[in-house]
Amino acid sequence: MLMFDYKLLAALAAVVEQAGFERAAQALGLSQSAISQRIKLLEARVGQPVLLRDTPPRPTELGQRLLNHVQQVRLLERDLQGQVPALDENRLPERLRIALNADSLATWWAGAVASFCAEHRVLLDHVVEDQAVGLKRMRAGEVAACVCAAERPLAGARSQFLGAMRYRALASPVFVSRHFQRPAAAADLARVPAVVFGPDDQLQHRYMAAVGGGEAFVHHLCPSSEGFVRLLQSGLGWGLVPELQVRGELARGELVDVLSGPPIDVPLYWHHWRNGGQLLDELTRHLVRCASDWLLVD
Fold first, then answer.
1. What region holds the HTH lysR-type domain (predicted)?
2. In sequence order, which residues have a C-beta less than 8 Å from that of residue 11 and are 6 or more positions away?
3. How many CB atoms lie within 10 A of CB 142?
4. What is the DSSP letter of 91?
5. Is the confidence at residue 90, as pLDDT, over 80?
6. CB 35 within 8 A of CB 51
7. pLDDT tens-digit profile of 230-277?
8. Domain residue spans in the chain?
9. 107, 140, 244, 134: which is closest to 198 by C-alpha?
């Protein structure tokens, strides 16, 4: 029977989480050659590769399953430490890697998790992904949980609806007056620059299709929630922005709606491993309980 050597699995997790062998070695206090040897030994024991030597390295299908196992073992070990006083005395704060979209990180997330992290001595490693594709990080075994727009959970995981973020199509008054001689129509938006978060961001495309403007339009790319708003304020383009993020700018008239139509609400779901232990269960209950302070739940 194959017995896991958790030093080898820790090396695999570090390489994926730190996006390379050199940083993994620094994180574990080892030499880079020692990390390489541990990965090679793990692959020899399981009889197949666990990493694709890309830049950054990516787990194989087996590597993903091993990473998922490591994530869950870490959380279960924390539960055991809390139950056995002798183990709990020198316990370090737990680190949780969580994938979430940049707009959540820029708006409601900090207020939702701050008290929980302080009470439970949790350190967070945030992995920023578009809300449409955050599950790929869980599938790859890189994170213990994620916030994304997909409802269906992965095998071995659960999903819980948190609420919806309301987005409005906004631009600066200067941009509107420069490009539109009359109230803007959906067809007008296709011929003026938009701002899109990144290549995986399909929100503007969905919005254009919903209002009848088609899916083809010119756009800037800006992979920063804060930078996104600054670009709109500067008059560089129009874009879909969380209402939560720009209440002040709207009140001051720095941003205005470009269409009179309805906003678009994006549902957000919390995904976590079923066997993630007490900490993930408690965090899930906490998020479900307090997310309605920021997100739309009706």
1. 4-60
2. 24, 28, 30, 35, 38, 39, 42
3. 23
4. P
5. no
6. no
7. 999 999 999 999 999 999 999 999 999 998 878 999 999 999 988 777
8. 165-266
9. 134
Question: What single-letter amino acid sits at 65?
Answer: R
Tokens of 183: 């109230």
pLDDT digits (tens, 9 = 90+) for 154-203: 988 999 999 999 999 999 999 999 998 777 788 888 889 999 998 888 89
Determine the Cα angle at 17 with ends 16 and 23, to 5°.
90
CATH number of 165-266: 3.40.190.10
- Is residue 271 a contact partner of residue 159, using CB atoms and an 8 Å limit? yes
* Structure-token match 């302080």, residue found: 118
How many residues appear in the chain?
298
CA angle 20, 21, 26 (to 5 degrees): 105
Distance CA 140, CA 16 (A): 9
What is the C-alpha to C-alpha distance for residues 242 and 264, in angstroms, rounded to an integer? 9
In angstroms, the CA 149 to CA 131 distance is: 5
**pTM greater than the 0.90 cutoff:** no
